[in-house]
Amino acid sequence: MTDYGPYLVILFAGWFATDLWRWLGVIAGNRLVEGSEALSWVRAVATALVMAVTAKLIVFPTGSLEASPLWLRLAAAGLGFAAFLVTGQRVAVGVVVSLALLSLGLALL
Fold first, then answer.
1. pTM assigned to the model
2. pLDDT tens sequence across 47-63
3. Number of domains in the chain
């Protein structure tokens, strides 16, 4: 029988580390006033973090995306962002356009 102890510790530690911050965010978020400067700061930081991860995935990809050329990743992201803006900031449209262009580009290369 395999010892699952280390895996359970990893699962618990991962769950606890993320869930603790989620609950603290819920508690703190309930006390913020809509439109307050603090809430604007939180939104700006969250947006910056998401964009930093996105930029990292585009410029320094891992896995199968690493084999794609930089120009293709940049073009797919840029045209997807343009589609997002043109369609009234619909996130799904931006994601679908970016993925479709990236997939098409990889299929043609």
1. 0.66
2. 999 999 999 999 999 98
3. 1
